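Trying the structure run again after the queue cleared.
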Amino acid sequence: MADPEVQISGGKPPVEADVEMEGDEDGPEITEIGSRDSAVGGGAAEEDDKPAPRVTFVDYLKSSMIELLIGSGDSQTLLMAHKALLTKSPFFTEQFSSSGNTRIELIDDDVDAISCFLEYLYTGEYFPHKLSSGSLESDPSVPKIDDNGAQLLKHAKVYTLAEKLGMPIDPSASRSITNNQLTKRIETQLLKSLSHSKIHLITSTALAEIAYARYVYSHTTRSDLTIRKPVASFWGQRSHVLRHETEGSFRDMCLEYPEFAFDVLSFVLDAEEKRAQRRGDDEVGKSARKRARGQ
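Done. Tokens:
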């Protein structure tokens, strides 16, 4: 029997609107109108509040080139990128500040994910692009149905790379960082949101979904519900059918990653509890034993 086609729907597209940066809440001291001190102080405040010159794309291209050595062994690849663009990533900013090297080694990273990241830095998107219709542009080099997880993993690797190259936004700490640092973190979040939304536009088989689930649970933290929760939800709704199409991979996944098994089970139990509540069952939430305890 052929693997069933599974269309994952959902996910939110990345935020494309401009983001306004909040400045320092402590404004200049206000003195009595008409005094000389007031006039001088006001002039200084206006000078301090003057916006920084806009950085143009030409300014990026004028910066020095950095070598990125990706992977290891025979598959090792050397890519080049402009330093000013790479500094949009806190990871690369730290690399440049700690050493003056013009070559950075990324031996544990995927060259395709890095190339997608670079394409995003230069253009604000990466292939395949999202269309206004809510679908992905056609890629003739891959099958229409992902039957091994390669297409899902492409975007999942971009997601985890974005996490590595820039810290996610922490609202409680946003006031203690500079506008430049906040801008870098927002750009990182936009790339994560973009890659995650593309995952939900891939038509895939059960085997592809297991490969994707294995990657997610091996490369993300327990607290990353953005990407883990949809995976658990998917299998919680369909495991009773699709597990038979995975050739034992679903069982292996549950044994290899107990967190995955727990998350799927929690989804199933929560769904059953909600159904019971809608039915108005009186025993919802109560603990009862059908058998007597052993002596």
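The longest strand covers residues 65-70. Worth checking whether this holds up in the mutant runs.
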